[in-house]
Amino acid sequence: MSDCIFCKIAGGEVPAEIVYQDDQIVGFKDIRPVAPVHILLIPRKHIPDLTAITPEDAELIGRLHLAAVKVAADQGLAERGFRLVNNCKAEGGQVVYHLHFHLLGGRQMRTLG
After folding, report:
1. Which residue from 16, 44, 46, 94 puts its CA 20 to 30 A from 53's CA?
2. What CATH number labels 5-105?
3. CB atoms < 10 A from the CB of 89, how many?
4. Angle at 2 between CA 97 and CA 85, to 5 degrees
5. Dist CA 14 CA 89 (whole Å)
6. pLDDT tens-digit profile of 16-27?
7. Residue 15 CB coordination number (10 Å)
């Protein structure tokens, strides 16, 4: 058994408010939202961070993005807009070391830079 909280959520061992799931991807509401809509999208496969993906993961990463678009539409954000964010490693702000994307929306996002 993995100690990874996201692996446990994907495996149904830890409860979460699931908004999307298929055989490879799980989407659930963040417990500390920073926007009215804040969904985490994770692969069921444990990948520690974005730098750990391999060419074999290319289809999985594409599926993650397609899931993000579907969830955004389901949440009423497709026309309004949304942000998809990945924090990678400590200086990038990553806290849980299981690849995940934050889908943020429901308010005007500030520009970066």
Report:
1. 16
2. 3.30.428.10
3. 12
4. 25
5. 24
6. 999 999 999 999
7. 9
Map residue 85 onto helix, strand or coil: strand
Of 38, 65, 98, 100, which one is the catalytic site residue?
Answer: 100
Task: Report pLDDT digits (tens) over 41-73.
Answer: 999 999 999 999 999 999 999 999 999 999 999
Q: Is 100 a catalytic residue?
A: yes
Listed in order, strand segments (DSSP E) in 10-53 are 18-21, 25-29, 37-43
Structure tokens at 69: 């678009």
* 3-state SS class at 49: coil
Helices (H) and strands (E) in the chain, counts: 2, 5
> What does the CA dihedral 11, 17, 22, 26 come to, rounded to 10 degrees?
-70
Half-sphere exposure of 34 (CA within 13 A, CB side): 10
Domain ranges of the chain: 5-105
